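Suppose you are handed a protein chain with no further information: no name, no annotation, nothing but its sequence. What can you learn? This example shows the usual starting point.
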Amino acid sequence: MHIRKRYILVVLLVFVALGWLLRLKAVEIADNRQYNFSLQQLRGVTKLVIWEQGFLLNNIESQQRTYFKTFTSKESVSTTIFGKIGFHINLADSVHTIIERNKDTILVKAPLQITYVSLDLGTLQQVKETSIDPFVKVDKNEVIKHLDHKALEKYLPGAIANLRDKPLTSQQKQLSRLVGKPVKIILTSMPKASDWK
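A reasonable first move is to predict its three-dimensional structure. Written in structure tokens, the prediction is:
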């Protein structure tokens, strides 16, 4: 009789332990489903705007030619234009963007990318100093085609310096509202002017 009570007690303890483990596994499965759902929601956002910065670009393109080491012929085009540079992170990029769970927080590790370089052609002002030499020529239209690269070379380092000090709280709040959990964004790398095509 005494052995039978012990046997029943052991079987009862095994059932309680088994029930407890199954409950933990069910909670873990539900938590994983919630995380996978949150991950799908984040990947669906695609591009999250991080920052936009305005600029005023002043650029001078010139060309000169010297004859007989004394006479120099020179032509130049001075350009002034307003514009904006936009930055984003791409949450749909599964190669460069890592989304992982750290306790109750979702970590988003992504490189910052250039979204656009916008030039306001309505503010374009060009002044051309023309040369009498037909071999020295600066094309005003060619200058305009390369202004976005000139703007990046000049203003990208300053924009990145501003971004390093800027908290991403508003973007993190947007994503937190979407998934219902705290989200922390970590910028893994900054763009270079050569990244822009």
